[in-house]
Amino acid sequence: MRLMNERVQRVFQEVFDDENLVVTDAMSAKDIPDWDSLAQIKLLIGLEEEFEVKFTTHEVASMTCVGDLKKALASKNLN
Amino acid sequence: MTEREAVTTIRDSVRRAKSCANAEVALAASTSNGDFGATWLRAALLEACGRGAEAAAELESLTDAFWGEERALRKIAIARNQFATDPSTAWRNLAEAVQAARNYSTLAAAEKLVNRMRRKHTPPFRRHLKIAMLGTVTLDLWTPILRVMCFAAGIDAEIYAGPFQQVEQEILDPASGLASFHPEILILALDWRSLNLPDEAADPDAVVRDKIAGIKNLWRGATVIQYGFEVPEIDAYGRLSATLPGGQAHMLRAINNALAKSDVLFFDVDQIAGIYGKAQWHDPVLWFAARQYPATDAIALLMRHQTALLRAVAGLTSKCIALDLDGTLWGGIIGEDGVAGIRLGGSPEGEAYAEFQRYLLALNRRGIPLAICSKNNDADARAPFEEHPEMVLKLEDIAVFAANWSTKDQNLRHIARTLNIGIDSIVFLDDNPIERALVRELVPEVTVPELPSDPALYVATLHRGLHFEALALTQEDRQRAASYRQNSERQNSERQTLATTSGSVDEFLAGLNIQIELRPFDQANLARIVQLINKTNQFNLTTRRMTSAEVSALLDRNGCYTQFMRLRDKFGDSGLTGILIALEEHDTFRIDNWLISCRVLGRRVEDAMLAAALKFARLRGLREVRGEYIPTPKNAQVSAIYEKFGFSRQAENSFSFALNQEIFTIPDWLKVDDATQDSENETDERARATSLPGSVR
């Protein structure tokens, strides 16, 4: 789980172009000013590539915080 | 190791380095044993310790097994690490990374690095372009990829992306963001869904007509790039969609064909979707979630094709192919195996070489000259062209034949000089990886595709580089191959004249029977005029590039003098090869653009062009002619041209010719047919000029 957090964090750092960004499960769009709908799509694309998974349409629409993203990832067979 | 495994190894190594609590300690414990993963780890640790130059050197020691993502990731890492110490090499590495990359995220990372590096150092751009994009799909993911690919092509792309699905509003509203942006290029990225076609139309002709009219109504102002429509994979009618006149596929193809025939630049999205694979082209999840189209990695291919078209708009398309012989045009070594021993036609491998030659011949026929650049004895190298029955290419298809024992970089320079083109417009093909590496090192401006070891894959590799995309095919393009041949005949003839008589170059030129036509711009020649304005580099006084719309606007503009020049001599017709544009400003005639194609230089056509313009200005009763010279890396040869014709220097690059002085005479062997003068009003104008000096219009 620690490794997953690190990998998720690295995707966030990449998308928001901020090497020092630290993510927590409760963190949502309210906490990061640049987290708009475009950033949301970039996060999903980044996570899909990092973990080699595909999110479902339902997941894409319902993920609002880092914890949701991680839960969705955990439900898949991860590489 | 597969490419996927290589990329995973790179990611793991970088990840390991980043999670090290103490990079210094880990670095001291690491060894550089040449192993792929270990080298990446060391490089990442060196970077973490702030030793960028050493990290870059570590990565430079690797060779790319895969000319794709692996190379892209390596080149990005090198660029990032060497930027502080060697910015110009870093820019080149970053451009090479972008050319190799296929994944969206790799390209997005490259784009971020370009932006970071730009804050400290200007990239080596060759051309600035203002591009507006309007679309019926979300364009936010497209623009960074387009920008970074333009960077790699030498284009500084300033991009305006209009708000989602507001195509008509943006175009029609004079207060829109688009209107205030003033784009040179307007990209209309409409997708098939936005057409709202019925599943099956009762009156398909009317539907198609109506849709085309709606699209054409959007074309105004800038140079328009019109996206064609994907014929989607999913259609409930199945094959009937194509066979029924009212089927969607049938109608989409009809609309595409009509758009392709129009005056704007048609962009064949359906073809690109097919190349990518339509089953993967569309990502329904992203479509429903964010109106994202096409799938993310498909965006990369779409933008690669878009950039190739923009290169053509910017006049940066490659102009010539230089070819190695042994292992490139045929199998085997001609100097050892002889004409009978080389592999060409007649076997599966030989067929592959013959097929490659057919593709090259087709390129040559549409105006791309071919040159030979080979380490061989000249006679050996020519033998297959003259004797081998399966050779598709003949000696007359070759514009420059450089087979000798000089190094390839020297021969490439010689080819560029002979054809009068920039060395950066050559694409060099060689099966030998050492030669390729050497040319990349010694003449980095030359494009060197990474040819695979199997000749069956040569055609696809060359084709997918998209080096030769063009806006239009002009008569000059079709004749170019012949024209290069005439040029070399001319050069031979010149050598003979100078050797056998005591004659001067002037006497030689007099014997060529040169005939020049000067004409005002017209619609019929517009495509060629725009092409020439945008690709001429050497004899070009101001290098002011213009869009088709801008040139078209000159046709009926008052106070604007336009002239194109056509040249014919006893060796053939060189076609439309010179442009002069001047504007009347009070009593001054200002030469805004003056350029001559490199193919006709050295024949004193410039004398005829300038003399006609001066004569026109004098008959208009103007007081002076102003010329300017804007230096670029390529146009030094015309820096003193105005002074040569009796202009006086006013400021550093500004020259003036007072029209009350004698106009220079042109050589009597130049036969000039000048239709640019205001012939009907000639006498009137003269009368007006004397009565109202300097106040015309």
Q: What can be said about this structure in brief?
A:
The complex is a heterodimer of chains A (79) and B (697). Chain A is an all-alpha fold.
Structural class of chain A: mainly alpha
Shape label of chain B? globular
Radius of gyration of chain B: 29 Å
Query: What's the total helix number of chain B?
Result: 30
From the helix content, strand content and strand pairing of chain B, which structural class follows? alpha/beta
Give the termini distance of chain B in whole angstroms.
Answer: 75 Å
Can you count the helices of chain A? 4
What integer is the average pLDDT of chain A?
A: 88
In N-to-C order, the SSE pattern of chain A is HHHH
Major beta-sheet overview of chain B: 9 strands, mixed
Q: In which range does the helix fraction of chain A lie? A: 55-70%
Distance between the termini of chain A: 13 Å
Task: Identify low-pLDDT runs of chain A.
Answer: none
Which pair of chains has the greatest number of interface residues, and how are they split between the two chains? A-B, 19 and 19 residues
Structural features, described:
The complex is a heterodimer of chains A (79) and B (697). With 79 residues, chain A is mostly helical. Chain A is 56% helix and 0% strand. Chain A contains 4 helices and no strands. Chain A has helices at 2-15, 37-51, 57-62, 66-74. In chain A, helix 1 (2-15) packs across helix 2. The longest helix of chain A is centred in the middle third of the chain and has 15 residues, at 37-51. The radius of gyration of chain A is 11 Å and the shape is globular. Chain B is of the alpha/beta class. In chain B, a hairpin with a 2-residue loop joins strand 13 (572-585) and strand 14 (588-596). In chain B, helix 8 crosses helix 17. Chain B is globular. Chain A binds chain B through residues 6-7, 10, 14, 17, 37-38, 41-42, 44-46, 49, 54-57, 60-61, and chain B through 15, 18-19, 103-105, 108-109, 112, 140-141, 284-286, 288-290, 292, 296.
